[in-house]
Specification:
It is a single chain. The protein is mainly alpha-helical and 121 residues long. It has two domains: 47 residues, no CATH class; 58 residues, no CATH class. It has six helices and four strands. The radius of gyration is 18 Å and the shape is globular.
């Protein structure tokens, strides 16, 4: 997009992410990294949260995660992103306390071959 602006040209295609299935889509420039910088009209949920979890070619560390561990991580990430969407600046620590489910595992358990995988959990 920057190229088109600098050259005074019009962008003829506007890519949208639509991973909620609502048919609306969200422009990629509404994000800085994975964090939204704009809000949708009518408090509609933004697209892109699931898209960032999908990898056509997973990294080595991603490929080593068990399906259960990947699903748990994805669920927790989505819950935290949804909580962030509800309030712009929550008090420190509020997001993790509000996240549903069991307490977060030790960070070492999330690594491939971590204690949770060795225990079979």
């Amino acid at each position: 997009m920057e190229f088109y602006r600098a050259e005074g040209r019009l962008v003829t295609e506007h890519a949208l992410l639509d991973d909620t299935g609502d048919g609306l889509g969200t422009p990629a420039d509404w994000f800085r990294g994975i964090h939204p910088v704009k809000k949708a009209a009518n408090n509609a949920s933004l697209d892109g949260y699931r898209a960032h979890q999908f990898h056509l070619i997973p990294s080595q560390s991603e490929a080593r995660l068990s399906a259960d561990l990947r699903a748990d991580r994805n669920r927790l990430e989505l819950e935290i992103m949804q909580l962030r969407e509800q309030k712009a600046e929550p008090p420190r620590g509020t997001l993790l306390r509000k996240a549903r489910g069991p307490p977060l595992p030790d960070r070492r358990d999330l690594r491939p071959g971590g204690r949770a995988e060795r225990r079979g959990g």
